[in-house]
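Narrative progress, year one. The postdoctoral researcher (J.K.) led the effort to move from monomer predictions toward full complexes, under supervision of the PI. The following entry was the first complex the group processed end to end, covering 529 residues in total.
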Amino acid sequence: MRSKAKICTEENKKTEALLKVKDLSLSFIQYASGLRQTELKVISDLSIEAYSGKILAVVGSSGSGKSLLAHAILGILPSNAILNGRIEYDGKELTQEKKEEIRGKEIALVPQSTTYLDPLMRVSNQVIGCVEKENEGLMKKVQREIFQKYDLKPNVERMFPHELSGGMTRRVLVSTAVISSAKLVIADEPTPGLDEKTLNETLNYFKDMANKGCAVIIITHDIEAALKISDKIAVFYAGTVLEVANVEDFKNNGENLRHPYTRALWNALPQNKFQAIKGHQPMQDEVTDGCIFYERCSKKNVLCSKGIPQFKDVNGGVVRCNNVS
Amino acid sequence: MCLKGENISFGYKRNNLILNNVNISVDRGEVLGLIGDSGSGKSTLCKILAGYENNHKGNVIIDGKKVPSKGYNPVQLVFQHPEKAVNPKWKMKDILNEGHIVPQDILDSFGIKKSWLNRWPNELSGGELQRFALARSLSPETKFLIADEITTMVDAITQAQIWNIVLDIVKELNIGVLVVSHEKNLINKLCDNVVYLDAINSVN
């Protein structure tokens, strides 16, 4: 079974995306008052593609629903979530059953923080996970090799999560993904609050995984960190992707960037102009008919307020904007 | 007028000092950057300067006098995670006006909308909550602001928005600011001077 799957991926690797997300929408059913229910839309019409051996960064502000994208791919959403759209993995549709079958094996999540580790379990057991008795010795050996590679001392494996520092926790979490020999790794905010040295180390772990042939998706709000290692950057805003750009497009004043929001984001960085645009990302309950960026856009016209712009291919990237040709 | 930490030593365990004889000083109107590795004690130093941690050696002094333990604290600390610094069972207007009635012009400059005041904290995003946290800390009695990674969790546009407003207000009110951040580019942009807190805890 496994060898068959392997052959398939190798054939497809060069041309086909390993993971394709098409027009994904996600909403939550909530109780408003009494027994009245409302539907809160958090992700709308989102499309991304991840290729083997490449790193895709999904960049957007905190609280805009980026983590839910990861949870949707892994099938770990809460029961009041409604998921629409299509997710394809390795050319086949990724259903909930399939997700449950392959998550932790072919798809691995590197979670955001220590809170995803079991506080009462020694870290080595968490890294190894559930394995059958006869494989335990082998897995233990693999785990020791990985720990050594990531510069975690032998005494670390007997530690509990609260005994680890921030950088060590990060390495333990990365180990959990490496040991599973996953083909797709999704990292959820792997960088905030790390100092420069630890940050670069962490980023290199993901680069290594991509070099080994994994498809890596990094979900982050730190555009600088994303630029350091990614191949493509998907710009996430208010629950959808506005632009997928190449890393080389982020230079000078951002004239190669396609969407006005991406350009504003680039120019807001402290090493660039440190220039802010007015307004806020719309709240989930504020429904707009037109382009989601309409309120804050400097180039808006009548067309933009009517209907969501479709994706267009421009200069090797895609963008959702009426004013780009 | 300046805020001084003199010979500050602190440790959670007796034989494991996190801060060892640290000296730091911020002038009024100055924007000072503080950089250091993870775990070097930056946040602990911030807490001591703002009076959240009392069990330390050394003195925190404003203008030659110890900081009063009662009344409004002239040193205000703003944290990385605003959602942990607000009472989840209070409405935003109560949270905002807990210490003093925040004047309308401050609300306007932060772009805090009237409709937000009647919301609960979980109905606002991190960037919006951080504006509330900053607005309530910048009272006329505030003399020093300690910003401990206040924009680490927000996107670049919100970061630029927040800092541009804060810099305007502190200039107007002549407040001294201590900026803690890992981002060198941000520190270079904002600060007049930078100090490094290194492993052996000497500030230079």
